[in-house]
Amino acid sequence: MPHELLEARGITFGYNRNTPILSDWDATFSAGEVVALTGPSGRGKSTLLYLLGLMLKPGAGDVLLDGVESTRLPDAQRARLRATLFGFVFQDAALDATRTVLDNVIETALYRGEPRDTAQGRALELMAQFGVNLRAHHTPGQVSGGQAQRIALCRALLNNPRILLADEPTGNLDPDSATIVVDAMREQAANGGTVVVATHDPALVARCDRVIQL
Asked: Which residue has the higher pLDDT, 8 or 90?
């Protein structure tokens, strides 16, 4: 029987109280699967990822992790859960232009209190796996869009997260870079993780186990 690692229960959210983006929304996400969130632009795919990833709090309802409610937890505890359980791939890679590529990748390890040397070793392994190891001491402004997205994926996978959330991870990538990113997400699920992607990309949707239309 699938293990439901992540669950949204009765989620309601809106930036304007009178026009909620989501209303009494339910879904479950099991370990071992890649789930696509699809729908027209503005329908709330990115917002839903932020809710599932504990970066936003719903107006009503709850997000459960391993069956445990998270919405009413103190902010510090929610931040700790984000740092330890989740990996995030943002739509624009969201790399800090003032820091090296390597420092961008190991950033989340510092929130978890990991020794820099340990995090750096793991980061360099991932960067070699995804073909961006020669860019370790460059800054984000010196890499291509495809390389930046693969660097963002390295950052997201650094702690081998149980839950990987990705927002349009292939939206601006060439086919080869997109294949590398999707293969990595499939591997994360095969290793027991839960992967949720917001996407318009039909090729990515075709490689997901399940689709949720918003």
From this structure: 8
